[in-house]
Amino acid sequence: MTTDTLVRIERHGNHVAELVLDRPDSLNAISTEMARQLAARAAELAADESVRCVVVSSSQAKAFCVGADLKERNGFSDAELMAQRPVTRAAYGGVLALPVPAVAAVEGYALGGGLEIALSCDIVVCGDSAVVGLPEVSVGVIPGGGGTQLLTRRVGWSRAARMIFSARRLSADEAHRDGVVDQVVPAGEAHAAALALAEAVAANSPVGLRNAKKAMRLGLDVDLATGLEVEDACWRATAFSADRAEGVRAFAEKRAPQWP
Question: Quick one: signal sequence residues (predicted)?
Answer without folding.
Answer: none
